[in-house]
Specification:
The protein has about 325 residues and is α/β, with parallel strands linked by helices. Helix 1 packs across helix 4 and helix 5 packs parallel to helix 6. The protein contains twelve helices and nine strands. It starts with a helix and ends in a 5-residue tail after the last helix. It has a five-stranded parallel β-sheet, with helices on both faces. Strands 1-2 form a two-stranded antiparallel ribbon. The chain has a two-stranded antiparallel sheet with strand order 3-4.
Amino acid sequence: MAYPKEVILRARNILAQKKADRESENSARLAHAYQQVPRIREIDIQLRSTMAAAAKAVFSQGGDAQAAMEQARQENLALQAERKNLVQAHFTPGYLDESPVCPHCGDTGYIGSSMCRCLQQLCALEQQKELGSAFRGGESFENFRLDYYSNTVIPQVKASARSVMEKNLNHCREYARLFSHGVGNLLLFGSTGLGKTHLALAIGSAVGAQGYSVCYETAISLFDKLQKARFTPNEETISQADRLGNCDLLIVDDLGTEMPGQFVTAALYGLLNQRLISGKPMIITTNLTVEETSNRYSPQISSRLYGEFKRLTFLGTDIRVLKNGGMTL
């Protein structure tokens, strides 16, 4: 899962703080235990010194090393048993449990070269915060309302807007549930105000919650970032552009609202090719038809959008108008 380095850094800082907090809490509890039961402190000192003393005796005086180490081991076991009994007698269970926050990685965030689940979860949470500005109204599958779509059959499609949108909702829900590398791409097509952005963000939220990295950009914002990386390159602008190509899921909202031009066409072609070749999924929302896409960008881009993407057509009346008029269907 290709989390951006900024997200990973924030997550690692949080984990480091959790580790420091746990160590501070453990130290405070241990100090309290020493004050309440001084014998525990004496035992801890003895435990630290027993094995060292045995090793020193062997190397300085000679003798049976195995016997000396076995004697030290037996003394340690007796001290540990005494300490355990004292802790159980004077404190609640787990009071002096000095285990790390994560028992799998010891709070390092990694097991070998692989990211531990604890750090993955923190990355997912940080990513959700980052996506928060995009999720303006808490868009989800649960609050997508089908009652804004008419039950009247549309002759051209031989189905009602509501039945078509119910299928779209179910398809998007399944897409999010089964999301993985190579799951495919979605093109959400239809007029303004029919719920394309809502379902795109609902997918993004569900996929992000599974631990995948998600980037949401309006078309205007996306091309602005690509342009800055091309013409004013620095660490920040290059990093932002890299995220668009490397994230697990890229959502581009309102394709066609950006200012057209040669740079936009070239940048879109390059981004599409990069993600299609690597099998990294995309979701694009637009109200451009095949012909309009071909005329605005190029036939090659139109071919990719309508050939490599699963197209979901959105039908109905502008929901914003219905909400403002207090209407439901």
